[in-house]
Amino acid sequence: MKILLLGKNGQVGWELQRSLAPLGEVIALDRSGGEGLCGDLADLDGLAATVRKLAPDVIVNAAAYTAVDKAESEEALAALINSEAPGVLAREASALGAWLVHYSTDYVFDGSGEQRWETDAPTGPLSSYGRSKLAGEDAIRANGAKALILRTSWVYAARGHNFAKTMLRLATERDSLNVVADQFGAPTGAELIADVTALMLCQVLRTKDSADLAGTYHLAAAGETSWHGFARYVLQHAEQNGVTLKVSSDQLGAIATEAYPLPAPRPRNSRLALGKLEHAFQLKMPSWEQGVQRMLDEVQH
Ligand code: NDP
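Above: the input record for the complex with NDP. Below: its predicted structure, written as tokens.
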């Protein structure tokens, strides 16, 4: 079993290096590639040539243009990396009969209402990033590959910068702290995404007629919160561990989206319905609190 992993050093890519390892030979690339291989999603010809050269059984694309606000002024580059490159990967995967795993986002939705979005709910991206990710999904579907398109939300990882670590730092430095309280979703650990990806791949690779399992799924932690609720949970955890904060969890301010303007509009409702994934792959997504607690224990000790 040969697996080509793209975007190996991103939040999800890093965890996939670990979770995919027991499934077979993993050739993991970042944008610099190496040994005559191209891992740059902006180089469509190089990418296609690399897939042909390696002839993998599975391609996992964890690379993406993820600078949500910058994408408003770099629409063409975001489209190249998030839309055209996945289309090329799907075309090449289809020619090889390989599986393609690709990640997408809650930003494909317009964020209206309070219901959880089903996978077939109408899309309506609000931002350049959201449009580029939706076009990537469409390009994969149009190329007819056996693909798992996994939409996730509010991704964090222990490694590198993340929202939780930023909140902890600001709460020890500042005298007051306000966080948006009217956007709802589920913080989802890169570890969970990578583990579930490996479990899904295990099933599709070992099941007869597994092409039926190809499709679009929502892969996120269970439950929901707001960014304010997420930050409050992080501060409460720190308080329980005896960390001295200048802004306590009770003092954390709740503000509206309008009070914190950003170049790219955010969906207010990012609640993703998990039933299709849980039913098709017999999985049960853990609560968002469980993953966040583990991550905080890792970064605080
Ligand atoms: P990261 O930003 O952590 O990682 C993205 C990776 O893509 C980086 O390693 C980056 O490399 C790489 N990359 C960017 N441009 C290129 C390129 N031209 N060629 C090759 N690699 C490139 O993202 P996540 O791990 O958080 O995201 C994984 C997936 O999940 C993405 O598809 C994203 O759209 C999706 N997603 C993410 C969410 C989030 O909150 N982060 C929410 C919902 C979905 P470099 O460091 O060199 O730029």
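Notes for the reader.
Residues 7, 9-13, 31, 39-42, 62-66, 81, 103, 105, 133, 152-155 surround NDP (CB under 6 Å).
The longest strand covers residues 99-105.
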